[in-house]
Amino acid sequence: MSEIRNVAIMSHSGAGKTSLLEAMLVRSGQKSQLGSVENGSTASDYTPEEQDRKISIYTTIHPLSWKGSSFNILDTPGYADFVGEIRGAQVAADGAIIVVSAVSGVAVGTERVWNTTIERELNRIIVINKMDRENADFFRTMQDIESSLLGNIAAIQLPIGQAENFRGIVDLVDMKAYEWTDDEPKEIAIPDELAGVAEDYRARLVEAIVETDDELMMQYLEDADIAPEVLHEAFYSAVRRNELNPVVLSSATHIMGISLLLDFMKEGVRFVEDHMPLPVVKGEAPLLGDQGSFCARVFKTTIDPYMGKISYLRVLSGQVSAGDTILDSSQDKEIKLSHIYVPEGKSLKEVKELKAGMIGAVAKNDDVKTGDTLCSKDKLIELAAMQLPSPVMALALFPKTRADEDKLSPALSKLLDEDATLRLERNVETHETVLWGMGHVHLEIAINKLHDRFNVDVDTHLPKITYRETIIGKGDARYRHKKQSGGAGQFGEVALRVEPLPRGSGFEFDNKVVGGSIPSQFIGSCEKGIHDALKSGVLGGFQVVDVRATVYDGKDHPVDSKDIAFQIAAGHAFSEAMRQARPVLLEPVALIRVRVPDRFTGDIISDLNTKRGRILGMDSEGSVSVISAHVPMAELQMYSPDLRSITGGRGAFSLKFDRYDEVPSHIAEKVLAEKRSQAA
User: Fold this and answer.
1) Which residue has the higher pLDDT, 479 or 676?
2) Cα 297 from Cα 299, distance rounded (Å)
3) Contacts of 97 (CB under 8 A, 6+ apart)
4) Which helix (H) or strand (E) holds 496?
5) Which domains are delineated in the chain?
6) Is 34 in contact with 255 (CB distance < 8 Å)?
7) What angle do CA 642, 76, 595 make, to 5 degrees?
8) Cα(199)–Cα(163) distance, rounded to whole angstroms?
9) Rounded CA gap, 156 and 396, in Å?
10) 8 A C-beta contact, residue 289 and residue 329
11) Is 53 exposed, middle or buried (0-12, 13-18, 19+ CB in 10 A)?
């Protein structure tokens, strides 16, 4: 059996994840006193960006021991912008602590990480935190949890008092009560006013337990006595199998409920061996645990100014020692592990070996990327790729100086190595370097990294929209190109028709020349000339799409007709025919899906309507609404901060390009006027 288990603390931003980690570190003796998010003294939020913004941006790993059991606690960001860090932590974890605020309840981010932990088959513990805060309400929060989160969920604790009166907990598994008068919880009798409620919730818990065990269910239905130790073992077994999701309570700032949480984790968190077989794309699924051959997955990458590239990995099977040569099967490259480490907060501790279940790190292996599989050379294994969402917001980058321009490309390469959710695009149409991210905060931090870590200064602007031009009518034109300048001349005459094609068809060329009015060797020249003309339309110089051009007549000259002459003639004829065929501007339209709590649905639909959106439908997922719409990309370039403003950070969205649609005439006039002013 592996010696260590990994637990990721996850939730929506603001639920108290970092404070809960602080309380766990203090209660287990890893720290002497609580740090504070407000004054930047926590163990996990140690970077300048995190301390300035007072939010978690990176996943950090913190070892702790409790009553003979060892854990790595992974503190994760709550902002959806940092989904790469969140998904990486899920890949590394055996279980997840899902934190819910007793004041604000379940948020969109909570539901999102809940659903992705289900996909990862992590066993889940729900912690209702901030039980000491004003307006904290266990019963309201419990109803919110049960209506919002999928699964067999049962409270295993009740609060003694709430908000400013919160002072203790009733343990429903053992039917004991505890009160905090100092660091250690003191066992007391269950208060009389809670006896009835405790019996009711205990009955619910027993029902949830027996639902996971057919034999116990039969005993329960027959009203047979179930021995406490049998029920106890069935409870923890169901939790480890992920068939029961327990709810516990805490006040992180007063370190209340923390020892009971750690006691529960000792019994309730699964080991690496307990996971289902992992999907693979090469080889056989690894035998999880210390009996198999070495296999690990890289779940996170950082760039350190002194150590270079650091790859964090979770060992799934077997073991590896410093000095071993292993295989990065994702890159098909051998890697020599000169040094190996284990992370401890912001530090790395060098070790001689890593075993199954452990989280480790290797440095200065530049070919290794986040998501890669590392395995023994003797047994090839490549795990299925990590699933990450597509980025939703972009900024165009413009180096401020020539020196910045020279340094930008290698700096961006390092940024992308560190963060797999960033995407770089070099747009050949607009000649812009475009950085895509998961939201405006994500991109702001990436730009700050360019300055702070790599000494690269850039100006940023919203990227230019890649408009298109097409026609909605038909046109016919003839053009003669004739050039005589004392030497060999140029002559070519082309007549052609243009007509619209269905949206998304692209371009079609048709040759209807009869009688050799254009010699066959120049038909290709005509097509090439038209293709060149497609690159710059007649309205604003945008690319032309969804047009058929038919060349039907022309003239040549026995001496002066040349390839270039027919290219020029065909290009001019095409442009003239385009002008006759009622040219229009097209814009890219995205399919957007917005997830928000139900109470924001009306505001979101109203806002999308002001953005020229066409609402396609709305689905309900518990207390969350998912609104689908088609919206022009030009209206969505700042949607990330817009959505955060409307929902107070409780919304999330995804988008992907869908099609091109005609731009309304009044907006097209503004676009074209701006294009002309830029060209002037």
Assistant:
1) 479
2) 6
3) 7, 8, 9, 10, 20, 124, 125, 126, 127, 261
4) strand 490-500
5) 4-274 (3.40.50.300), 280-383 (2.40.30.10), 393-452 (3.30.70.870), 473-581 (3.30.230.10), 588-679 (3.30.70.240)
6) yes
7) 35
8) 23
9) 51
10) no
11) middle
Give residue-wise pLDDT tens across range 237-246. Answer: 999 999 999 9
79 and 63 Cβ atoms separated by less than 8 Å: no
Average pLDDT over residues 647-662: 90
Would you state the structure tokens that stand for residue 400, as one six-digit string?
């401020």
- Element spanning 230, H or E: helix 228-240
For 172-181, which contacts have Cβ atoms below 8 Å and span 24 or more sequence positions?
172/198, 172/201, 172/202, 172/205, 173/205, 173/232, 173/235, 174/228, 174/232, 175/202, 178/260, 180/254, 180/256
Helix (H) or strand (E) holding 543: strand 543-544
Q: Are 616 and 629 in contact (CB under 8 A)?
A: yes
The candidate with the shortest Cα–Cα distance to 52, out of 452, 418, 348, is 452
Calpha distance 119→103 (Å, rounded): 28
The yes-or-no verdict on residue 185 having pLDDT over 90 is: no
Under DSSP, the state recorded for 447 is: H
Phi/psi of residue 144, nearest 5 degrees: -60, -45
CB atoms within 10 A of CB 518: 27
d(CA 653, CA 650): 11
What confidence tens digit (pLDDT) does each residue in 97-156 have? 999 999 999 888 898 899 899 988 899 999 999 999 999 999 999 999 998 898 999 999
In angstroms, how far is CA 597 from the centroid of its own chain? 19
Please write the tens of the pLDDT for every residue from 502-561.
Answer: 999 999 999 999 888 999 999 999 999 999 999 999 999 999 999 999 999 999 988 888
In whole angstroms, what is the distance from residue 120 CA to residue 278 CA? Answer: 10
Q: CA-to-CA distance for 578 and 539, rounded, in angstroms?
A: 10
User: What residues form DSSP beta bridges with 432?
Assistant: 427
- Could you tell me which residues come within 8 angstroms of residue 645 by beta carbon, excluding any fewer than 6 positions away? none
Sign of the Cα torsion 315, 318, 324, 330 reads negative
Structure pTM? 0.89
Give the pairing of strands 614-621 and 624-632.
antiparallel
**CA dihedral over 12, 13, 18, 24, signed as positive or negative:** negative
The strand pair at 468-471 and 543-544 is best described as: parallel
| Burial profile 164-182: b = 16 or more Cβ within 10 angstroms, e = fewer | eebbbbbbbbeeebbebee
